[in-house]
Design the sequence.
DNA sequence: CGTCGCTTGTGAAAAACGTCACAAAATCTA
DNA sequence: TAGATTTTGTGACGTTTTTCACAAGCGACG
């Protein structure tokens, strides 16, 4: 029941949630920390310590009720509700993300698409019309958008971020390979695939 | 000059490399740990500690020679050469990745594309013809492929991984939302965007 | 009801990681 | 050449995160 939670704990909670969904699909009703650990590349003690930050959800001698723990993890991770998301940048990566069904199944609902290209503005993607960047502030306000998926070229990313922050955005999933400057109350997660490839080549070179 | 390097150090080295390229573009010849720290959201002591794992590259009173350190980081990260990469899964995310120029500019060269869809097999993407999964082993062998970018549905991912591992693959950038089982000499980096969105909604919910 | 087997929750110990502080090395100035 | 100035490299220190170990809680069963 502590205050500051390690980022690594959060990543593991997401894994536990996914494992619980699998286990529920197998028709099981309870699960032990040891089994969650096995499915998640961690240890039973780590599972229990992670969960203990948020309360005590298990029964000694028995384990955790799968459905109960699943619901608690949804609450902890904040995915027990719908999040309104805007996609900024209707390019190659943006179009792949827009059609990716995993977001919506976790409650991340894309309610707006923005692009600067005059050829794209006005086009329909599914039920959504692509909007120009000038409308960013009004879209955030009128649609209750809290999250941005930012998939624009690096040189446009900071400027858009500044406007989004001004309009009250709360979190940004950033695909542009730059470090966005945001005030401390705005959360940013970076997706940097080149860095991940570099981690692979480092690991391989190291052992080699 | 130590043995086991923290993953967080490797991530920061990638950032330093990117900063050095920027600094070189500005025509500067030397840089201090303090300036690298400012550009990388870390501290000067951290920069020096990170680098000290691999040797001592600076000059006291002066700092680091930009070009020299850049080249050393390229070597350390293993990107001072070309890596042959195969793209497995020519779907939505696969097509975005294939056209992403940042990979090739770091020496990650896509030399093969594989897909199981009979409609896609045989089609040309740029200069490459899409291959069927049966050819995975022979492609790895004949083209010297060391890295996979795995962009297939989750239920196909483990099976392809097993075959790739059998054929000698060394690293996998995995987009499928499952934890791949691989022997310890194979490196895996997972890209899991849903988990990153969950980290955002957790952070926002927490402060809220 | 008492005991037995199982599994949690959690302080305490250990390990990993980051920060601090300063001697040493280099340049610059005069 | 001496002294002032700058900035590295690194051991010592502090904090965070993981692992360990076990008392306590729960169900089952005779
Ligand atoms: N393609 C990939 O696989 C990939 C992977 C990881 C990261 N990224 C990053 O994602 C970003 C987009 O990459 P992409 O490959 O989709 O590029 P892209 O050129 O295909 O798409 C970018 C889109 O952003 C739009 N845009 C440009 N300026 C804008 C602005 N000011 N406001 C709104 N929209 C604007 C463009 O019109 C275009 O439609 C880049 O930063 C890239 O580095 C791409
Ligand atoms: N679309 C996204 O934005 C996105 C983002 C992150 C992760 N992912 C993940 O990436 C993977 C692919 O997603 P997608 O959206 O591109 O799906 P997709 O259906 O558009 O593409 C998948 C491709 O893989 C091919 N395929 C299927 N089985 C195969 C096999 N055994 N061997 C070779 N190829 C095979 C299919 O023919 C198809 O072309 C999924 O695991 C998904 O969860 C997708």
Sequence:
């Amino acid at each position: 029941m502590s205050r500051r939670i390690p980022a690594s704990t959060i990543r593991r909670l997401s894994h536990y949630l996914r494992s619980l969904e699998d286990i529920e699909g197998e028709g099981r009703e309870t699960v032990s920390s040891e089994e969650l650990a096995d499915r998640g590349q961690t240890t039973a003690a780590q599972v229990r310590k992670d969960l203990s930050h948020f309360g005590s959800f298990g029964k000694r001698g028995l384990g955790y009720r799968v459905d109960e723990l699943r619901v608690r993890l949804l609450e902890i991770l904040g995915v027990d509700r719908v999040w309104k998301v805007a996609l900024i940048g209707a390019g190659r990566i943006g179009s792949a993300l827009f059609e990716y069904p995993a977001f919506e199944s976790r409650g991340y609902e894309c309610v707006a698409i923005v692009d600067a290209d005059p050829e794209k503005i006005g086009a329909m993607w599914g039920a959504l019309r692509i909007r120009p960047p000038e409308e960013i502030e009004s879209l955030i306000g009128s649609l209750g958008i809290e999250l941005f998926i930012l998939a624009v070229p690096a040189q446009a990313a900071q400027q858009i971020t500044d406007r989004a922050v001004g309009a009250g955005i709360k979190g940004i999933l950033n695909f542009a390979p730059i470090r966005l400057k945001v005030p401390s109350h705005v959360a940013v997660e970076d997706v940097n695939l080149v860095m991940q490839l570099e981690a692979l080549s480092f690991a391989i070179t190291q052992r080699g």
Q: What stands out?
A: The CA atoms of residues 137 and 167 of chain A lie 5 Å apart. The pocket of nicotinamide-adenine-dinucleotide (ligand 1) is lined by residues A 88-94, 114-117, 120, 133, 151-154, 156, 160, 175-177, 193; B 96-97, 100, 102 (CB under 6 Å).
